[in-house]
Amino acid sequence: MMMSSLTSWWPGPGEFALPELSGIMAKAASPVKVLLVVAHPDDESECAATIYRITHEVGGVVDQLVVTDGAGGLSFSAPALDYYGLRRSRVTGKELSRLRRGELLRAGKIIGIRHHYFLDQKDSGFTLDVDEGLRTWDLPRVRGELSSLLERERYDVVLTLLPTSDTHGHHKTVALLALEAVQAFPDSSRPVLMGVSTGSFEKTGAAFEELPGFPETRTTNGQPVWSFDRRTPLSLSAALDHSIIVNWVIAEHKSQGMFQMEYGRHTHEHFWQFAAGGERREAVWRPLLRHFAADSLLTPAVAA
Ligand SMILES: [Zn+2]
C-alpha cells in the first residue's frame, strides 16, 4: 500500500492552509505536554526525532517513564564495557542498570526530555511473551505510579511503542498498562494515545489494527495517522537533518551493542492512534502538525 493513500500524513498538504498559526504563536498558545511510557531505557529512540521536534521546535514538554531497570540488556555489550573500563565477568545486572540509566539521561538531554521516571521493574531479557511482565512486575506499583503521574500532569498525549506481535513482550505489556491507565480517565479529559514504530517510507505497508487477543489495543485506522521523515532538514540548518539527532541518541546507548547497528536504518517514525483515546483525540495532534508545518519543513518524499 502506498503511503500517499493515508488519510493523513506528516505534514499533510491541508495543514499548510492555516496562516494564523505561526511557529511563534503556536509556542506561546498551547505547548503540548507528552508522556512517553516505555519498557526499556533506549525505547525513546523509536520516536527520537519527533520528541526533539516537540521540545525544540514547538516548545512542548516531554516526560519519559521507564518501567524496567534494563538489567537484561548485557548481550553484545563488550565494546561498551571496554569503553567504560569494566570487565563483563564483574558486571552485575544492577551495574548494567546503573550504566543504562546514565546512557538514557544523556540521550534524554539530546532530545529535551524534561523528567525521567524509573520504575525499576525486573528486565529478564528478550521475550515475546506479553504475560511475562504481568507475572513478574510489581503491578500495583506500576499502575499506581502511572495513574498518579497522569493525574498530576494531565498530559495531552501519551505515547508508547506500538504493540505489534513481533515486538518485545515488555513493549506489549507496557502498552497494555498505559492503555489501561488512560482509560480510567473520563472521555473528555483522557489524553490522546499514540503507538509509535519506526520503518521506512516504502515499507510501512504493515498495517496494525490490534494486537491479537487484546481488543483494547485497537487503532482508529490500520495505517499510521501521521508519520515523520527523519531526513527532514533541521530548522537550525537546512543542510542537516533530523537523522543526526536520532544517531546521537543511538550513540549514547553504548551498552546496547546490536542497537548501535541501527544508524540510518529507519527513515520514518510512524504513529498510530489507539481508539481508546478520549474525545480530544484529533483536537490535540492536528494542531501539533500545524505547528510543525508552520516551520515549512516539508520532506521531498511528502512533496512528491
Ligand atoms: Zn525496548
What does this structure look like?
This protein has helices at 23-29, 48-57, 78-84, 93-111, 131-136, 139-153, 169-183, 243-252, 281-294, 300-303, and strands spanning 33-38, 61-68, 116-121, 157-161, 192-199, 226-229, 233-234, 237-241, 268-273. By secondary structure, the chain is α/β, with parallel strands linked by helices. It has a single domain (3-303), classed as Rossmann fold (3-Layer(aba) Sandwich). Strand 7 and strand 8 (237-241) form a beta hairpin. Helix 6 crosses helix 7 (169-183). The longest helix has 19 residues, at 93-111. The chain is globular. The model is unreliable at 1-28 and 294-304 (pLDDT under 50). Residues 39-40, 43, 168, 171 line the site of zinc ion. The site of zinc ion (ZN) has 5 residues, from loops.
